[in-house]
Structure formats: structure tokens, C-alpha cells
Design brief:
By secondary structure, the protein is α/β, with parallel strands linked by helices. The chain is about 45% helix and about 15% strand. The protein has 7 helices and 4 strands. The protein is globular. The protein starts with a helix and ends with a helix.
Length: about 180
């Protein structure tokens, strides 16, 4: 695969707008968020583990996720950013008969599992139907299992939420404490 085709592929999966692709760790104001920026930068370089950004709206969580996806893509690493409710819509779209995409549900799910960097924003902002909750828990668990496997390729899962970690489902809270 040529470098240009690879880069086009990475752009097609990153989930970012043209404006967001201009954000980088180098341009961030580190006043007040310096430790979080350093932690996300280091995790993005290592591409292993779970990092949860927890705080009130407007504290820079989304910007950090976007910078991580950009940094990974610039290193030729598959990285995906998604607001969690949009991620669920992306999965549901595979079942729409009018969908002309060649991506099946399994292909969409595999992309989320295999992305070396997966940044999920607004983790707490979705309608927790039984199906959505099952997908949520399964995605977190599968990414954790892949991370925990010492033989697996590198995988980093970045999560952002306005809720305290203890307010997330027990399984998710447990995985965050592990990663």
C-alpha cells in the first residue's frame, strides 16, 4: 500500500473534521492541564492501556482526545475518535437496509477493536438501552482484554466523561482502574 493510500485510509477512519485535524499537543496551553496533557502524550506514544479523562464540561478533554488521534495518525498509526452516541449510531447503521456501505457490522466492530488508538468522548452521554449498554460493556471489555494480552499488538483506549469514574458501570470502573 502506498504512503498516500495509507494516509488517505487513516484520514477516512479518524472521525475528525478538517479543523480538528489542525490540533496538536504542541499548540495546547499547558496551564492547568499540563499533567493531563503529558499523560495523554506519553500514552499515545506507548499505545498501550486505558486513560480516562474525567472532569466537568469545558476542561479540555475533547481537545486532548483529538490531539492524541492526530499524533497517532501522523505516526502512521490507525486511530479513531468518536463521541460514544455517534459510535453506537455507526454500529447500528450496518443494519439499515438502505445502507450502501460495504462495511458490515462485523467490519465496523473490528475497526473499533483493532484501532491502535481509540478515543471515545462523552462516554456518559448515550441512551443506555440494553443493546447500547451491551455494546458499551463489550467494547470496553474487549479492548481491555486485547491490552492485557502481552502478545497482542499495542492498543490504547482513551475515554472522556463528565461523570466520576465510580459512577460508571462496575465493569468499566474496574477496567479503568486496571489500565
Amino acid at each position: 500500500v502506498s504512503d498516500a493510500r495509507r494516509y488517505a485510509y487513516l484520514l477516512s477512519i479518524d472521525g475528525l473534521t478538517a479543523r480538528e485535524r489542525g490540533l496538536s499537543f504542541a499548540t495546547l496551553d499547558r496551564t492547568g492541564n499540563g499533567a493531563a496533557i503529558e499523560r495523554v502524550e506519553a500514552a499515545t506514544s506507548q499505545r498501550r492501556g486505558f486513560v480516562a479523562l474525567i472532569g466537568k464540561p469545558g476542561t479540555g478533554k475533547t481537545t486532548l482526545l483529538i490531539c492524541a488521534v492526530n499524533a497517532a495518525r501522523e505516526r502512521n498509526v490507525p486511530a479513531v475518535y468518536a463521541v460514544f452516541s455517534d459510535l453506537l449510531d455507526y454500529l447500528r447503521a450496518a443494519y439499515n437496509p438502505a445502507n450502501t456501505s460495504e462495511l458490515t457490522f462485523d467490519a465496523r466492530w473490528d475497526l473499533l477493536l483493532r484501532a491502535e488508538v481509540l478515543a471515545i468522548d462523552e462516554l456518559d452521554q448515550f441512551n443506555a438501552t440494553p443493546w447500547a449498554m451491551e455494546r458499551f460493556l463489550r467494547l470496553i471489555d474487549e479492548r481491555w482484554r486485547l491490552m492485557d494480552n502481552r502478545l497482542a499488538d499495542s492498543r490504547l483506549t482513551l475515554l472522556a466523561t463528565n461523570l466520576p469514574a465510580s459512577a460508571l458501570p462496575d465493569k468499566v470502573h474496574s477496567r479503568l482502574c486496571d489500565g
